[in-house]
Design brief:
By secondary structure, the chain is an all-alpha fold. 72% of the residues lie in helices and 0% in strands. The longest helix is centred in the first third of the chain and has 32 residues, at 2-33. The chain crosses the membrane at residues 44-64, 71-89, 101-122.
Amino acid sequence: MKQKLNALAPLMLSLTRIMAGLIFMAHGTQKLLNFPAAESAPAMFSLSWIAGLIELVCGALIAVGFLTRAAAFLSSGLMAFAYFLAHAPRDFFPVNNGGDAAILYCFFFLFLVCYGPGPLSLDRILGRDR
């Protein structure tokens, strides 16, 4: 059983990367394209707008697995910045301050920086990440 699960690990890494990238990208589409509809849109070139641009572009890159390590590095930093700027001042505990997703994104993207995109990625197909 353990051998079968170990054999599936690279595929699951790719699937998890794809889903994380798509969900991260959705945060950007909401901020920049108002899809799905949001109560308000951030002002152009504000910190929130720039965050949305990074979420949209890097989320797409992470989802398809292209320039994965660079996109994940930038995204990880963005999520650390977002946590300490927006969430931590509200409360010490992430479950109370709403920052648990930012922490998970931060550390998952940092994992991708170190581990790479997995086999189902443009980086792997193009021979950029072996």
